[in-house]
Specification:
By secondary structure, the chain is of the alpha/beta class. The chain has eleven helices and six strands. This is Pimeloyl-ACP methyl ester carboxylesterase.
Length: about 220
């Protein structure tokens, strides 16, 4: 019997390489198969989810923006969704000045005026290395994708309240761009959700730490 597929989407200007590094191992251990589409931006993420649907309910989710898009897809198509894996939710409803949206908008402006390296000045460590790897893959679309993300909406708390599938939510307690309080509000709104936490330091040392936290929360839900 074929294992349940999990379709997981990247965060803003991230990519399928990072998604696989976070989720492939933990999902395999749980008997789930990973599909990490090479999609770019909100519209392509939705198209990837639609293309993955083959009549069998999917586990969907992702990181930050990818989690938002997957949750919105689940709200629109509850019959297609077997569960949600939500890593680092950044806001619910309209962005309304959320830290992640402000950061994306500011980065887009610097990318347009001064280039990628200027936008990443001062971003060091594993995160800086990750962005310097992923951002050039977007080419001339980078600023456009950053702005699209900054202006996008996530499901509202009321919409999340209508989802009856199990949901695993994970966040990093030391991440100001994806506040712990937002993750708690998602879990408070969802009927069947569990929250697990990790840290950015742990994520830097072991990408799978975030995937394990998300999947453990899902299995507990």
């Amino acid at each position: 019997m074929r294992s349940t597929r999990a379709v997981l989407l990247p965060g803003t200007a991230s990519d399928e390489v990072f998604v696989a590094s976070v989720f492939a191992g933990p999902l395999a251990e749980a008997g789930l198969s990973l599909l990490a589409p090479a999609s770019r931006g909100v519209r392509e993420h939705v198209e990837a989810l639609d293309a993955a649907w083959d009549g069998t309910p999917l586990v969907v989710g992702g990181v930050s923006l990818g989690a938002h898009v997957a949750a919105a897809w689940a709200v629109r198509h509850p019959e297609r969704c077997a569960g949600l894996l939500v890593a680092l939710p950044a806001w619910h409803g309209a962005a309304d000045g959320a830290p992640a949206a402000l950061a994306a908008s500011a980065s887009a402006s610097v990318v347009e005026s001064a280039g990628v390296e200027a936008a990443l000045a001062g971003v060091d460590g594993w995160l800086g290395a990750e962005l310097r790897r992923a951002w050039p893959r977007y080419g001339t679309r980078l600023a456009e994708v950053l702005r699209e993300a900054a202006g996008s909406s996530s499901p509202t708390l009321a919409e999340l309240g209508g989802l009856t599938v199990p949901v695993g939510v994970a966040t990093c307690t030391d991440d100001p761009v994806h506040p712990l309080g937002i993750a708690r509000e998602w879990v408070g709104a969802l009927p069947r959700a569990v929250l697990r936490t990790t840290t950015l330091a742990a994520l830097g040392a072991d990408r799978e730490s975030l995937g394990r936290a998300t999947l453990t929360a899902y299995l507990d839900a």
